[in-house]
Design brief:
Blueprint: E1 2-6, H1 12-24, E2 32-36, E3 46-47, H2 62-71, H3 79-92, H4 103-125, E4 129-132, E5 137-142, H5 150-160, E6 166-169, E7 173-177, E8 182-186, H6 198-210, H7 218-224, H8 239-244, H9 246-257, H10 261-279, E9 305-309, H11 314-319, H12 326-338, E10 346-349, E11 356-359, E12 362-365, H13 370-387, E13 391-395, H14 397-404, H15 410-413, E14 418-419, E15 425-429, H16 432-436, H17 441-465
Parallel strand pairs: 1-2, 1-3, 5-6, 9-10, 9-13, 13-15
Antiparallel strand pairs: 4-5, 6-7, 7-8, 11-12, 14-15
Helix pairs in contact: 2-4, 3-4, 10-13, 12-17, 13-14
Length: about 475
């Protein structure tokens, strides 16, 4: 029996080095035990002596490395062994990760999803409180993660709060940033974190002021913000009273809404302009790095119809405007055919930066992944909130995911109205670029006719709702 000792719970590099050497030595999974630090898991195991196989070749699909980096952070003690078992399986069958019915693959995917949720919850629900000392002003937060995600998640807070000196305390491990160095110390207790600060009252006032009772869905809210996180969030104390008074506030909003329509129109236009300026500095994902510029939405702030594309293309990236390339020109022709005025339509994209692969001098469109779509969905949601369209059309699968907040297939959602959270209608159809890629002329004509029918239906719905 060979025993491998890793430095810490998130020691992916240590696991990878050990697993590689063991796999090259053809050591079976049942002959290996894994432990972290000085805590033994097998009293009868011998410390593994790993040979230098740096020149030997061992390859795995890139998705496995990404899967392993995430699964390593899980609190499941058997995660190291499960990953090693999959590593050996991939040496015999490189397509093993494609078998969705495989119990091992399903188990690893469950662990990955659980870690991803925990990382998201930490980013969403960490609340810093100001602590003043003689030497410095520091911001301290308390969080209780389910998994070993502190080392993995700390660089996110380092980038987001680069100008602050902060500490995130957790029961297992604490992360600290002093403006130059990211460091870690042993775990703390909640008593080590501050209970509140002067800024907290301002934040609670702001949170209460932006609460919209007309959009409140208690089940959806508690699903996204489980009550176990409320105790660490200052605004959570306000939620019960806001829920209790939601109906009364909603009626008040309805009664006074007509009086402020003209004034609201001006404010919405200013807010949309400010939103665009804020989006110029977006760093929610890495797509801003290679892109030429942000491509934000455009159109009237009171447009009854909103069209959502997937992402800017090469020409949109250079022009800084949505739908100006070949797909946009084709879309304009179809809109004109059915009598939809593009100048009266708000047009935007699910992702605001151009994702591409460089091939010689050409930049080839690359489909945005789920994380990039979800990261950019915040901006799209703000656009929808400000424009308040009666009908929103998602052009393509990526746009549909951004509009609905989940992955759907065009074939199953196309041709029927979908009620959106604000009570408006959503529709799903294909992206115009799809029509440009169909090689068979006969099929291309059929698909173009169907797309034209979709837009004609949308026009009728807009007319019926306005």
């Amino acid at each position: 029996m060979r025993c491998v000792t890793l430095e810490h719970e998130e020691d992916f590099d240590g696991w990878r080095t050990a697993a590689r050497a063991l796999a090259l030595a053809n050591v079976p999974p049942e002959d290996v035990t894994w432990q972290v630090g000085d805590t033994p898991q097998d009293l009868f195991g011998d410390e593994a002596v790993l040979e230098d196989n740096s020149r030997a070749t061992l390859t795995v699909p890139k998705p496995f490395l990404q899967l392993a980096q995430s699964v390593i952070c899980h609190s499941e003690r058997e995660r190291f062994a499960l990953l090693y078992r999959m590593l050996l399986r991939l040496q015999k069958n490189r397509e093993a990760l494609q078998d969705r019915a495989d119990p091992l693959r399903k188990r690893l995917e469950e662990l990955r999803k659980s870690v991803a949720r925990d990382i998201h919850k930490m980013r969403a629900f960490v609340r810093f409180r100001e602590v003043q000392t003689e030497d410095e002003t520091r911001f301290v937060a308390w969080f209780e993660p389910e998994h070993h995600i502190v080392r993995t998640n700390a660089p996110f807070f380092q980038r987001r709060f680069a100008s602050m000196n902060w500490s995130i305390l957790t029961p297992e491990l604490c992360a600290h940033w002093d403006g130059e160095t990211l460091s870690f110390t042993e775990g703390a207790t909640k008593a080590d974190a501050p209970a509140g600060d002067p800024v907290e009252e301002t934040w609670k006032t702001y949170f209460a002021s932006i609460f919209n009772p007309a959009r409140m869905k208690v089940k959806a809210m508690t699903a996204e913000m489980p009550k176990k996180y409320w105790k660490n969030m200052p605004e959570s104390a306000l939620i019960p009273d806001m829920i209790a008074g939601a109906r009364a506030r909603e009626m008040t909003m309805v009664q006074t809404s007509r009086e402020g329509i003209a004034r609201a129109g001006d404010n919405r236009a200013k807010s949309l302009s400010a939103l665009r300026e804020e989006a110029e500095g977006c760093r929610r994902c890495d797509l801003w790095k290679p892109a030429t510029q942000l491509v934000f939405g455009e159109g009237p702030v009171d447009a009854a119809l909103m069209l959502i594309g997937e992402q800017p293309g090469d020409q949109e990236d250079l022009a800084g405007r949505p739908f100006v390339g070949p797909a946009g020109q084709l879309l304009d022709r179809f809109l004109s055919d059915v009598g939809i005025d593009r100048s009266a339509t708000y047009v935007t994209n699910a992702v605001k930066h151009f994702k591409y692969e460089q091939r010689g001098k050409r930049r080839i469109h690359s489909k945005p992944n789920g994380g990039e779509i979800d990261a950019c969905r915040w901006w799209l949601t703000q656009e929808i909130d400000l424009v308040q369209p009666k009908v929103t059309v998602a052009l393509g699968a990526s746009a549909a995911r951004a509009m609905l907040g989940k992955t759907v297939t065009i074939s199953k959602t196309r041709g029927a109205a979908i009620e959106l959270p604000d009570g408006s209608e959503g529709w799903v159809t294909v992206h115009p670029s799809y029509l440009l890629r169909i090689p068979d002329q006969g099929r291309a004509e059929e698909e173009r006719a169907r797309f034209r029918e979709d837009l004609a239906t949308v026009k009728a719905r807009v007319a019926a709702l306005t």
